[in-house]
Sequence to fold (60 residues):
Amino acid sequence: MERVAQRCIVCEEERLDGIAICEQFICQHCEQEMVHTDVQDAKYPFFIHQMRRIWFTKDA
Fold:
């Protein structure tokens, strides 16, 4: 079975490995970075903003 690259909703890069949430792809790199990011980290609001796109895209 051949894997197909998908565009990550967080970093917008084409990747092979990751997860799907509500039919939106998050690459393994971004998933791991989000899981290990503290809420006080400067990058945390960026992740929240990108994750909100899942619901806006789904309901559009």
Remarks:
- Residues 44-59 form the longest helix (16 residues).
- The longest strand covers residues 18-21.
- The chain is about 40% helix and 20% strand.
- The mean pLDDT is 90.
